[in-house]
Amino acid sequence: MTPPSRIRIGSAPDSWGVWFPEDPRQVPWQRFLDEVAEAGYEWIELGPYGYLPTDPARLTDETDRRGLKVSAGTVFTGLHHGPAVWEETWAQVSPVASLTRAMGAGHLVVIPSFWRDDRTGAVLEDRTLTPAQWRELTTQTERLGHEVRERYGLRIVVHPHADTHIDSEENVNRFLDATDPALVSLCLDTGHYAYCGGDSVKLIETYGERIGYLHLKQVDPGILAEVRRHEVPFGPAVARGVMCEPPTGIPALEPVLAAAQRLDVELFAIVEQDMYPCPPDKPLPIARRTRQLLNGYGLRSCGPR
């Protein structure tokens, strides 16, 4: 495999069991920063807003002295509800986008809202959108892409996610076909896409110009089969270990990275192994092994900024 020098590898708080701004079962943010640097990564995401310091000067000091840089921030949205939720959505997006820009990053990862609660499994709304809701989802996402670009100079990358309305190959294709490539790109999460039955290599080869960002993740096929059989919500599925350490799961990451490299564009590929909750001493050894695995694929340098 040709060394993919245009792919920049990083990790995220998610790989340290961090899902919330504050939670006693999560490692302190200082430990996350120490360990992600120790594992050999140079790029990180902000994770849930408020987990890392939100003062740009302080966060810059903390990342700089560990040799870390920020690739993206993350927001959750429910844009299929239409203009009625715009002000509420923007109130959540704005501080994240501001910090993301202040840290020198260029991407905002946008995750659709869940149709069922990821902790309790309670059904919050129908899992299938109406045609009118699909129109709202696509037009409001384009609006978000425009506003984030104009106000903050960031590119939104929409993240297909389990238990949301943008999940399967059918829904991802429908979403991409209905949105403007100039405003909306995709954050392809290999684990979530496999969880929902998708083929990451096929998606890259079919919609290559829409792939703006990658999350590297694998699914344990045995646990996934049980999750599907019993319709287990995503949160409890993660607690069962459905997202597993590479290279023990699917999809194989080397072909995905090779397909991404053939696009001949600069991409971030951020390792995200969902592990919530998890013992505090579990993430670092996994992070080290995963970084060594990626080294073996030729991903030794983070490439240009």
From TrEMBL:
Keyword Isomerase: yes
InterPro entries the record matches: IolE/XylAMocC-like, Xyl_isomerase-like_sf, Xyl_isomerase-like_TIM-brl
Tree of life domain: Bacteria
Any single Pfam family the record assigns to this protein: AP_endonuc_2
Ranges where the Xylose isomerase-like TIM barrel domain occurs: 33-235
Key words of the record: Isomerase
GO MF term (any one): isomerase activity
Name of the protein in its database record: Sugar phosphate isomerase/epimerase
Source organism (scientific name): Streptomyces sannanensis
